[in-house]
Amino acid sequence: MSIDLPLLARLATVVIAAVMLLLLWDALQVVRLRRATLQRRLVGGLAPGPGQAAAKGVSGDDPEEPADPMPLAPPGLRTLHRESGLSMRLPMLVGLSALAGLFLALVIGRLGFPLPVQVAAAPLATIALVSGLLRRARERRLARFVEQLPEALGVVVRALRAGHPPSSGLEMAAAELAEPAAGEFRELSRQVKLGLPLADAIERLYKRMPCAEVRYLAVAVSVQAEAGGNIVETLRTLAQSIRESIWFRKRVRALTAEGKLTARALLLLPVIVAVLMQILSPDFFTPLVESRLFWGLLVFCVLMMTGGYLAVRRLVDLEA
Fold first, then answer.
1. Is 47 exposed, middle or buried (0-12, 13-18, 19+ CB in 10 A)?
2. pLDDT tens digits along 254-307
3. How many angstroms separate the CA atoms of 25 and 89, rounded?
4. 8-state DSSP, 164
């Protein structure tokens, strides 16, 4: 099966040129924002606070970073990038993913797959890589924060018992913990010091860290602020409940690991077999590709495999 080298060369040239323009635009945006921030500091005497560098990229309101690093991207993608906490800017991530997708398309063409598959591989791989990396980073960041949350609440409880105000307790928790909890609690302390009620500050924390544990914390503090009560005992009880929830999740994750592995193996097995057959016998799929029935059956099989994978994931998912 022949490979249309001129078409692939034009496709590669277009993708590389688009990536270079995207990275150049992103670099110019960074330079412009740095220059504007420097001018504001020189004119207004603005000096960065002691915890600004650590909170950078967490609160989303750092003057040195744009609110929307890639305005043309979908809002959901920008939100996912902000919640993932990645230091790599979104245009850089998209550009590198596009190059990886182009490389995959060239490899598929080298293996002898038909031209429509080669052309579709680059954008699909780019979308899958960007979304997968951001979602994986977001899940890992949320998981680390949830594991640190009981310890952070314990520090706040001890500070409140010693007579410190809530802002000092939050600042102590930020000083003793690692990222991402350190940056989030530092930002929480800054907002409380500026006069924002603790319940409202935790609501903002929930928007940055959308997980059930932070939602429980926001509801508990809000109810305590309205109805009164002992906030120290409330936070202590909540920290103990989160510890038990974390232990239970880890136990369930260990029990369901075999089911998740089975689903992934069944999903990847047909793809691996097809690639091996194409390598060992390049003309094996030639009669099938020339038939319209083959493409209909291929779409049907992909949909059935995807549905089966999602069904198995739902069966082993604790929160489903």
1. exposed
2. 887 877 788 788 888 888 888 888 788 877 777 777 777 887 888 898 888 888
3. 12
4. -
Residue with tokens 């680059």: 122
Q: Is residue 120 part of a domain?
A: no
Domain holding 224, by residue range, is 141-254
248 lies in the same domain as 165: yes
Output the domain CATH number for residue 175. Answer: 1.20.81
Q: Do residues 205 and 237 share a domain?
A: yes
Q: Full-prediction pTM beyond 0.85?
A: no
Q: Judge if 248 and 192 occupy the same domain.
A: yes
CB 59 within 8 A of CB 79: no
Structurally, the chain folds into a number of domains equal to 2
Same domain, 189 and 151: yes
Asked if the peptide bond before residue 91 counts as cis, ω within 30 degrees of 0, the response is no
pLDDT digits (tens, 9 = 90+) for 174-214: 999 998 999 999 999 999 998 899 999 999 999 889 888 99
Nearest CA to 236 out of 138, 178, 293, 159 is that of: 159
